[in-house]
């Protein structure tokens, strides 16, 4: 790399929802920030995201909730069950003291609103493809933008690329999540269903006038569900989910997402990972973006607490990691625990699951504890 690159303050690699949220949180504070995002167009990804009430509060402070909220469907009631087994649990917003348990939005809209708001107040280069970064004081970033390779020195490089450049996933769930919009004969009444099946969890989330589906299954079956004609797909969904939502009558085209696991560990000076680049989780508990948004929010606070304009020293990074470790560890542990407990067919585990669900259903303090952890993270 050349010796004297241009100098920037905080460089954010990746303008997905987490990177854009960080850029927004740094606005108005006189900190120099530059966001580099590879894509130029709105993401066509319509995967449904369940936002926690805690995420709503952060998005309100970032100023995007008024517009996003118009497209968000509240969740007020959650039903959890397992196919072919006893035990079920129900969680209602009224039991938790929260106005709503969460909100369903789509990834493309969320990413676009955050990116637009970030571009209005922070320098954002869309179409800038980051090729490499290097820790050090200063850290460096090499990227391609408008046909030219460029290089920057930065007091802090924040990697929010979803894991695209930052390295291989640390594990493959050997599962895919099939997403679609479906319509059934019964209204959703703001109820979300999570049903654990032999091949993985199936979530049916209230979304506008219909439902957003996240159906986790084996890669082969996912591929088959994506190419099935609508009638066959609806029949298979009905068989797997049962009749709680009435008869399924309509479906959109399906998309399939391969599920990986990642936990980044980097001790490079002046480089920090957030969002999916730091930890990629199974969608079973709907925690990935919620956790990533808290990464961004807390990192912004940590940067703004820094008196000088040079965050990123080893001690500074260590303090940020400590600040995030309980929340991150809790989110990762809870998600992996659910996947291990619910994604297999062993009889003893089936009994433990059923008993756990039945107990959970009649223990209000436990429900309250879990709802607050999932809403606000470990500080809940
Ligand atoms: C099916 C499914 C359902 C999910 N449901 C939920 C849910 O209900 N609730 C929840 O909280 N989470 C959920 N998640 C997880 C959630 O989608 C992720 O946690 C979230 O998208 C992470 O955001 P991010 O900004 O960190 O990464 P990403 O969304 O991956 O964004 C990364 C950005 O970096 C850019 N980029 C990549 N490489 C480069 C490069 N070389 N140079 C510049 N830019 C680059 C990309 O273009 C992209 O814009 C779900 C995930 C899946 C797969």
Summary keywords:
single chain, FAD/NAD(P)-binding domain, alpha+beta, globular, seven-stranded mixed β-sheet, nine-stranded mixed β-sheet, binds flavin-adenine dinucleotide, 380 residues
Outline the structure in words:
The chain has a single domain (6-168, 260-379), classed as 3-Layer(bba) Sandwich (FAD/NAD(P)-binding domain). 36% of the residues lie in helices and 32% in strands. It contains eleven helices and 19 strands. Helix 1 runs parallel beside helix 5 (107-119), helix 1 (17-26) runs parallel beside helix 8 and helix 8 (288-304) runs antiparallel to helix 9 (314-342). The longest helix has 29 residues, at 314-342. The radius of gyration is 21 Å and the shape is globular. Bound molecules: flavin-adenine dinucleotide. Flavin-adenine dinucleotide is lined by residues 13-19, 36-39, 47, 49-50, 107, 129-130, 160-162, 164-165, 177, 179, 214, 257, 275-276, 283, 286-290, 292.
């Amino acid at each position: 790399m050349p010796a004297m690159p241009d100098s920037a303050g905080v460089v954010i690699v990746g303008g997905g929802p987490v990177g854009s949220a960080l850029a927004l949180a740094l606005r108005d504070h006189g900190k120099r920030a530059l966001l580099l995002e590879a894509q130029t167009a709105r993401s066509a990804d319509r995967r449904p995201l369940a936002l926690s009430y805690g995420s709503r509060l952060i998005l309100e402070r970032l100023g995007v909730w008024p517009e996003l909220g118009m497209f968000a469907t509240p969740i007020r009631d959650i039903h959890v069950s397992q196919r072919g087994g006893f035990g079920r649990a129900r969680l209602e917003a009224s039991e938790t003291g929260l106005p709503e348990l969460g909100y369903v939005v789509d990834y493309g809209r969320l990413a676009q609103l955050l990116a637009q708001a970030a571009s209005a107040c922070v320098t954002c280069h869309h179409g800038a493809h980051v090729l490499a970064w290097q820790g050090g004081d200063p850290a460096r970033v090499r990227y391609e933008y408008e046909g030219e390779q460029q290089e920057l020195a930065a007091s802090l490089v924040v990697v929010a690329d979803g894991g695209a450049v930052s390295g291989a996933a640390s594990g493959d769930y050997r599962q895919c999540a099939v997403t679609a919009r479906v319509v059934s004969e019964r209204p959703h009444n703001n109820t979300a269903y999570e049903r654990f099946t032999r091949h993985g969890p199936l979530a049916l989330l209230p979304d506008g006038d219909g439902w957003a589906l996240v159906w986790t299954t084996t890669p082969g079956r996912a591929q088959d569900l994506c190419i099935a004609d609508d009638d066959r797909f609806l029949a298979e969904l009905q068989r797997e989910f049962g009749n709680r939502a009435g008869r399924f009558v309509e479906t959109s085209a399906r998309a399939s997402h391969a599920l990986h696991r990642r936990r980044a560990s980097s001790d490079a000076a002046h480089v920090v990972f957030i969002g999916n680049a730091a930890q990629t989780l199974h969608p079973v508990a709907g925690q990935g973006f919620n956790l990533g948004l808290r990464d961004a929010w807390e990192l912004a606070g940590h940067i703004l607490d820094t008196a000088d304009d040079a965050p990123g020293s080893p001690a500074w990074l260590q303090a940020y990691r400590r600040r995030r470790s309980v929340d991150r560890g809790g989110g990762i542990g809870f998600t992996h625990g659910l996947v291990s407990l619910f994604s297999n067919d062993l009889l003893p585990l089936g009994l433990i699951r059923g008993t756990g669900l039945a107990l959970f259903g009649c223990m209000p303090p436990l429900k309250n504890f879990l709802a607050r952890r999932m809403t606000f993270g470990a500080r809940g």
